[in-house]
Amino acid sequence: MATIDGRPAQYQITQKNLREIMENRGREAVSKVNEYGGVMEICRKLYTSQNEGLSGSQADIDHRRETFGSNVIPPKPPKSFLTLVWEALQDVTLIILEIAAIISLLLSFYQPADDDEPDLQEEEEHYAWIEGLAILVSVFVVVVVTAFNDYSKEKQFRGLQSRIEGEHKFSVIRGGDAVQVNIGDIVVGDICQIKYGDLLPADGILIQSNDLKIDESSLTGESDHVKKNESTDPIVLSGTHVMEGSGKMVVTAVGVNSQAGIIFTLLGAAVDEHEAAAKQKKKEAKKAKKAASGKDEITNNSHGHPQGIRSQTTVDSITSDDGGEEGGKSGGEGGHGGKEKSVLQAKLTKLAIQIGYAGSTIAVLTVIILIIQFCIQTFVIEQKPWRNSYANNLVKHFIIGVTVLVVAVPEGLPLAVTLSLAYSVKKMMKDNNLVRHLDACETMGNATAICSDKTGTLTTNRMTVVQSYICEKLCLVTPRFSDIPRVVGEAIVEGIALNSAYTSCLMSGQNPGDPLQQVGNKTECALLGFVNGLGKNYQTIRDSNAEDTFTRVYTFNSVRKSMSTVVPKPNGGGYRVFSKGASEIILKKCAFIYGQDGVLEKFTRDMQERLLHQVIEPMACDGLRTICIAFRDFVPGKANINEVHYDGEPNWDDEENIISNLTCLCVVGIEDPVRPEVPEAIRKCQRAGITVRMVTGDNINTARSIATKCGILRPQDDFLILEGKEFNRRIRDSNGDIQQHLLDKVWPKLRVLARSSPTDKYNLVKGIIDSKVSVSREVVAVTGDGTNDGPALKKADVGFAMGIAGTDVAKEASDIILTDDNFSSIVKAVMWGRNVYDSIAKFLQFQLTVNVVAVIVAFIGACAVQDSPLKAVQMLWMNLIMDTLASLALATEMPTPDLLLRKPYGRTKPLISRTMMKNILGQAVYQLVIVFGLLFVGDWFLDIESGRGQPLNSEATQHFTIIFNVFVFMTLFNELNARKIHGQRNIFQGLFTNPIFYSIWLITLVSQVFIIQFGKVAFSTKALNIEQWLWSVFFGLGTLIWGQIVTSIPTRKMPKKMAWGRGHPESEYTEAIRLGEERYETMDNDKKPRAGQILWIRGLTRLQTQLRVVRAFRSTLEDLEERRSIHSLHSLRSSRSHPGGMSTSGTMTSQGLSNLLYPPGSNIQTGRLIGTNVGDLKYIDEDQRLHNNQHIIGINNKVEYSI
């Protein structure tokens, strides 16, 4: 018989048996477990030990994976490059361009029979087909670039996701030792230690539990926490949250065999069928031309059918089948419910609408003027009859007008936004900021307030007991055990060793002489260190008192602020209850205390007050966290004064009665030093106009001391320090309801909130965000590490979770994870956020200057000489190449400390400031004067042949080539000016710290030289001589000198209306939606657009489509009149709304999922699917991918953005 590590290879229980067990709940589950002999017998049949766990040998682990499966849900294979190419070709714009290319090629050999215009020159006839070919080449370039971009994004996202998953570990027992293993390495038979805040990575059966409560809403939709224990409900499932307590479980199902995995497997199998049905419905709706009803029908029939739901390499992550390339914080419970869209998104939406209006107006005027001119000249003055060829003239005029509109739209802006955010996110990882939601990056640049935790964020989280009060004696150093009365000393040592999580321990450093490493809860580690300092070994006590022998454990939570453990005494001598917690709370429950020489005394009210004022408050004023340790005995026989006699088993559920009349053993003062870099970081925040508030559970004196050391409080400041109770009293009315006007009287001066609960933190954050006291509404960042911090993290504009001390639930609710739990990393996030904002502003300043000049040149040129000095192929170079390269150059600027020397922008400050508008208009004036000077007198000034009035399709002239070259050179040198947006004079500062910028600048310069000298027919250029090149460089350098003159103009004297892009999130977002196509359904405010498409949020979809369609026709039809090339192809693909239905909140109802998984009449049963939400499942629609960032399997430490 085959063996593995000396035991039979065949398990005594099958995967089918385990699945039958896991499909039950409550008493039914207990009965089912007992059918197999109980949990101990199941462990034996799985060849595992409840105390020792698995052996950990690789052979055993591999065999278990082979038999029961791995803790992964196999992802769909990534799309091949050719598949992505084919998908890119499906874009409507590209299809039109392909057709246009074919038409252009055909028309290049056709001339109307009634055309009396001069024949084309023989050479020009030979090259007439070049425009059609140029369109095809452009389509090819766009398709390949799009496909490569998608391919690289998916590949990079998967690599980043794997890195995050590798950092998610879980505590299991192997070989008798508790070890941290990657969740993907967990196998059936593993003994997992579960604790408060965990997100369970697999299904299992409880072996032992202490006051365990689980949030199963991700599977059942029920919001109430479910009590779990071995006797009433021992089944725990993957993807559920541990909200309270601790315990151990044996893993019985992993990966696709877990209950959550079964759901996703079935869901994935059903996707293709329902997608096909949805597409068919959509076709039928289109044929019927009933858009509204068809849309509803599709929505109802495909509700809850995600596209390509998949998991990455471990159970704890579900991403889109394209690698999660698009993302952002979404609505519903799973996302940031109730959040407005980001500040930058709101401003860009507003700006896009303004640009669209301005461009449309000029375009219409251009078309009207050209047509009127043509009609008057041809039919009135020359009195010619109508010819068929005149239709081409009218089409040409229309296309010129649309060209003006095309040039008006800054097409490179979305790329600049995406590049800047993606570049920043990548760099922020090196600064210990793991960005989970891309928009959080730029939002952080607008932050006006930070609500920070104390422990671990402002402090080192390396705690040490530095003072103790034992038997009415205050010790400033750790006493020796022999100096303490024996009965008191033993009780203190046992109370600390046993009444703390066994996962908290002290481990030896890697090198001899290194300080002990604190593993687990840092406060408990400090107390364990105190035991070692007394000369005792806490591990010896733990070894003789196994955790599963405890009668009851009242675990720490934010309400109790204490922990208590009921330990049975040996030989049936009763029970001892150990309690530890915040000194004020525990002392109120104490009725006795050990006095001098260990004499037991009654703990009177006067003694309590004296201890509070003489011991605890001085400790707190020194910044120490005070912890009280106490106990209580329950005895079956005769009871002493501080003991309780019992006849029957005490009612351990009556916590209030059990944890009362305690005997105080000692009070200790724990020091958690302020991080040395924090005071300077807070000073930087204050200089940057950001208010830092400290929200802590410590008492008010400790909080005041730490806040003073950090610099949050200064002696001369008139600020508020409140405890949670007083805070609630001030913000609530007589009915106990929170009133915003009352909150508005408190938060502006509040700097420290002590003894606060997570609910207090949430109320504070919500109150600040909703307040309209300040002119520019507050943008709030919050830090959190506990499970109950989730609501505050979600409500905040930016939520920071602690990567080290934070629970899985807190990380899931956050936008950014601080991998070093350090406040100074938040300051770096502010710098990067402001840098993103400035990078976008720099690109806008540069791009809008180009667009303003190009629009006016095209408009005036068309009206004055009935031709555009800038040819279509030249526009292609300006728009497609320079926009892309400029966005890359300006979006990759590194942040500087100067970013923290100004106030936040806030929600309503215009994106284009008066200074920027001054620079844009100032440079535009200079460039227009030069261009029009060259257009009208340049031929005379430079002694060259004029390009004005040239016949159609004639050879390129040096005159118009110089205009094109000078325009490009002015634009290139203005790119240097655009690097500064706040009126700085030294435009070269930091230039050579950004190699990307100057490399791209030089590449563009060299490319321009090549185009001018060798472009010829393809680019409508003629080679220039050295003198003409020097003039081009001279006019280009003039922009730098002119820029200094413009900078000297006082900005404050300019009208405020010159600022553009003022953000009004709600109203402007509504307006943007209203401008969208009818087929786009109104999005819920909770659903925020993806960062890479923020310019075109619904509002400019129709506009973009029109631009690209007309561009295609221009390239096709203009061939009849004039040899030109296509214009810019560089634009974002319009988002298509989901053909299938989804609820407006972005969640799938359990009924919807049940109908999907279990059609009426099916007998499939995979656990309960009840309630309103089933895991807030992440689902993907056709193009609006990643609508919800929650899922039902494992931690969602996902990085949801495009790279």
Question: What is the structure about, briefly put?
Answer:
This protein has 1203 residues and is of the alpha+beta class.
Shape: elongated
CATH homologous superfamily classification of the domain at 343-404 and 420-429 and 830-1099: Calcium-transporting ATPase, transmembrane domain
Q: Strand tally, please?
A: 31
Let me know the largest β-sheet: 10 strands, mixed
Low-confidence runs (pLDDT<50, min 5 residues)?
117-125, 289-339, 1064-1203
Determine Rg (CA atoms, Å): 36 Å
Chain-averaged pLDDT: 74
**Percent helix among the residues?**
40-55%
User: What CATH architecture of the domain at 343-404 and 420-429 and 830-1099 do you see?
Assistant: Up-down Bundle
- Helices and strands: which structural class? alpha+beta
Q: Indicate the proportion of strand residues.
A: 5-15%
CATH class of the domain at 343-404 and 420-429 and 830-1099: Mainly Alpha
Question: How many angstroms does the end-to-end distance come to?
Answer: 53 Å
Helix tally equals 38
Kindly report the CATH topology of the domain at 343-404 and 420-429 and 830-1099.
Calcium-transporting ATPase, transmembrane domain
GO molecular function: ATP binding; ATP hydrolysis activity; calmodulin binding; metal ion binding; P-type calcium transporter activity
Region (Disordered): 278-339
Organism: Anopheles minimus
Biased composition (Basic residues): 279-292
Outline the secondary-structure elements:
Layout: E1 3-4, E2 7-8, H1 15-22, H2 26-35, H3 39-45, H4 58-68, H5 81-89, H6 92-107, H7 122-126, H8 130-167, E3 169-174, E4 177-182, E5 191-195, E6 203-215, H9 217-220, E7 226-228, E8 235-236, E9 241-253, H10 259-288, H11 291-301, E10 310-311, E11 318-319, H12 343-381, H13 390-408, H14 413-430, E12 433-435, H15 439-444, E13 449-452, E14 464-470, E15 473-475, H16 486-498, E16 505-507, E17 517-519, H17 522-533, H18 538-543, E18 552-554, E19 562-568, E20 575-582, H19 583-588, E21 590-594, E22 600-602, H20 605-621, E23 624-635, E24 643-645, H21 655-658, E25 662-671, H22 678-687, E26 691-695, H23 700-710, E27 720-723, H24 724-731, H25 740-746, E28 750-754, H26 758-770, E29 780-784, H27 790-795, E30 798-802, H28 808-813, E31 816-818, H29 823-865, H30 872-890, H31 914-941, H32 958-977, H33 995-1014, H34 1016-1019, H35 1026-1047, H36 1065-1074, H37 1101-1117, H38 1150-1157
Parallel strand pairs: 13-26, 13-29, 21-25, 23-24, 26-28, 27-28, 29-30, 30-31
Antiparallel strand pairs: 1-2, 3-4, 3-5, 5-9, 6-7, 6-8, 6-9, 10-11, 12-31, 14-15, 14-25, 16-17, 18-19, 19-20, 20-23, 21-22, 23-25
